[in-house]
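Async update (no meeting this week)

Hi team, since we skipped the sync, here's where things stand on the single-chain job. The sequence we agreed to prioritize is pasted below, unchanged from the tracker. I ran it this morning and attached the output directly underneath so nobody has to dig for it. Comments welcome in thread, and please keep replies under the output.
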Amino acid sequence: MTAWLAIILLIGAVIALVVARDSDTIIGLAQDDFARVVYGLAILVFLAGVFSSTRGRYLQAFKHLTGWLAAMLVLVGIYSYRAELAVVADRVVGELSPRGTQVNVTRSYGTQAVRIKKGWSGHFVAKAEIGDKPVSMIVDTGASTVVLSHEDARRLGIRTHDLRYTVNVQTANGASEAARVYLDNISVGSVVIPNVETLVAKPGSLHQSLLGMSFLSRLRSYEFAGDYLELRE
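Output:
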């Protein structure tokens, strides 16, 4: 019974540490100190239980001791490698997700990251938010700036009839002009970039908005790997 109590203590500690990973303290203790206190307490409870239940039977005590210590070490190991295991879990979920899926992923040291799976069209389409409104944007490293279609710009509340279309751009439909604006922020999942230089295309010149380099170049990094694109803030 006491051995199970020790295991429950360790499981509870692991859960508390995972839940409070963004906090510096747990019940007034630094996270490392909290882990050491609970781990030490669990060992004491476990040893007391083993020796009280196997008094005088040293071989049986040794077998119980090694078995339960192995179980506790497994739990400690799982917690120690929680960041690496989270990355593996993210990758498994990504493989099982349909094309076009966008998910926030776990990274160490508080880094925000989003993984996008290539869509059926062959493009990476980011599900962005601008001013709390959703906008689907093709990730385009060949575009020097973010470019909004005229329709998306109007839907976002930009006064398109007041804009000056003085910037020459090259689109799939040929040469055109666009207007320069600055957006307060663009968020893709948990990744948020403020004050983003953006162009608004003329009506009919662009069918889908582009997430260009004025956003991508301000990330910590971005990486294409097969069917996946990862954006890291």
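Quick observations from my side:
The longest helix spans residues 31-53.
Residues 2-80 form one domain.
Reply here if anything looks off.
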